[in-house]
Amino acid sequence: MRVLQEYPDPVSIGSTIxxxxxxxxxxxxxxxxxxxxxxxxxxxxxxxLISLFLGFxxxxxxxxxxxxxxxxxxxxxxxxxxxxxANWVPSSNPCNYNGVFCNPLGxxxxxxxxxxxxxxxxxxxxxxxxSLRILTLFGNQFTGNIPQExxxxxxxxxxxxxxxxLSGSIPEFIGDLQSIRFxxxxxxxxxxxxPFALFKFCYKTKFVSFSHNSLSGSVPASIANCTxxxxxxxxxxxxxxxxxxxxxxxxxxxxxxxxxxxxxxxGLQNLSYFNLSHNGFQGGxxxxxxxxxxxxxxxxxxxxxxxxxPLGITNCKSLEFIDLGFNRLNGSIPVGIANLERLLVFxxxxxxxxxxxxxxxxxxxxxxxxxxxxxxxxGEIPKDISNCRFLRELDVSGNAxxxxxPNTLxxxxxxxxxxxxxxQLDGGIPExxxxxxxxxxxxxxxxxxxxxxxxxxxxxxxxxxxxxxSNNLSGPIPSxxxxxxxxAAAFLNNSRLCGTPLDISCSGGGNGTGNKxxxxxxxxxxxxxxxxxxxxxxxxxCVVSIMNIRARSRKKDDVTTVVESTPLGSTDSNVIIGxxxxxxxxxxxxxxxxxxGTKALLDKECLIGGGSIGTVYRTTFEGGVCIAVKKLETLGxxxxxxxxxxxxxxxxxxxxxxxxxxxxxxxxSTMQLILSEFIPNANEVVVLCEYVRGLLETGSASxxxxxxxxxxxxxxxxxxxxxxxICTSEVPSRRPSMAEVVQVLESIxxxxxxx
Length: 755
Known about the structure:
755 residues, 9-stranded parallel sheet, 10 helices, 22% helix, disordered N terminus, Leu-rich_rpt, LRR_N_plant-typ
């Protein structure tokens, strides 16, 4: 604006042109003006370039200097049990250091070490990495605190120092890092209060976690500055007082918050997760007049809330999870619960709710869990519940329900838990319950059930808990080992029930011909049952004997070879002793062959690929036998041979035509290997991935979905499938990190289309 004011304005220029005598004057003025303007612009451009150059030179360091910074970081490490920093040497390019990632210009952008048990203190020298964006040191043993010098890391947007041994107060200077989006200091030893200044410039922050520390005081009101906050976790601290009214997400588990709960934020537009469970909030839940269209999770359990459940909660049609259990709520279950068509979990147990179980629950087709235990409900169990074909858990115990158990519950083919105990149910136990093949818990105790125990319950192969005690059942307990194995306690207090495992004989006495004929009939049936049972037992013994004989005859050619105390890949005096187990006769069992074969573990030319849990090599023995060897990076997660072999046992039980054959394993205290079939060029993997890509391109991706996933959002499943294809990329560098995978999954869960 100052430049333009030095020259004639357009109006005066126009009037000069209209005057023929002033034409020469205008041309001279215009020429002079353009020359001055050109010189001025050129000088401004030169000054701008010089300032940019000086600024760049002042704020960046060379890659060589960054190498020195990283080596200073290594110098502060007192223990590196897994040699995670072994290749951090002066002669190497720092961009090739383990756990270091550089940007295209060659400057350090990320430092990532997960569960590597590094010990020491954080080096202040890292403040010199002016391009550092991500610092992730999760699951290590760093002590002390975050150095004050890190306040200079203005580009830092993610800090994850969780699960370490850091202590002291949470540094206030973190609040000056305006690019921070993710801050996780959970599972450390931080004490004191959460600094007010920590949330001074948190406009970009999306997630904060200080859980599992020893923080005290209250949550600072400045957290309301975090306008883009999607969630925070301050659980398992000693926080107290009331929550600020301006926060958007409230995952504040297991603290001591009291007073009214901040239900007023339920209408916030971006709210998707609302959790104030395990606190001391009091008062009632106000009427929900507006509800976020994104709200999916609502948990206010384990507080001291009272009053009725507001009817307006049924207008939150995006809700998938509701837990109001363990409060003092009264009234009845809201009418219109069927409006929550996306509801997966509804938990209301341990309250003073009265009334009946609404039939409308049967309209919520996707319902997975219905928990109404320890309420004051009466009436019958509605048959409409049988329409919830995906239901896995139904718990209505501890009420005053009466009537018969619906004989339509066999429609609940996914049911795993059926708990009806401590009610007033009568009638018999439906035969149809025997078709619930996934049932793991069946508790019908403390009711008024009569009749016999159906033999069909013996079909429940997955049953882990069974109880029909304290009823009016009669007749013999089915002679089925699966049922009798639950012991006498499962059948007590049924006066007319007899047989094993109760110490009550089922043989009856009496006089008269009628009784004798009845006794003879029972006796003859018993004889028949005994004969059949004896025949089955004899047949089983014969089959087992034949199998044992055949097994002994093949023992010399057994495909499993165990080589104890086998030293692998070492010939010095400090040899590592291990155990080698082979499941294939084609593999050599001599130590010399394996000593030569394991040299592949040191040969980069034999490297096939790698991942977060290990590296895969190709090993070839004499005779052309070729296998794939995965060298595991357990990082201390598996600490004993028994634990390792249990995991191997689970792998060995996996059966699928697209899984490579499992051929053995090796265990020692310092090295664990998995041996499997080698597939040249990973043909099966390529074919499978191409097959899935083809289905995605033709719009037939749903053909790949497991049938058990029916009912879930197809769009979300397709996005997860796309993520899986990226994670299985043939080029390891193209595969996303675990942190990136988690972020993508979070965005999918939030309904945001991932790119």
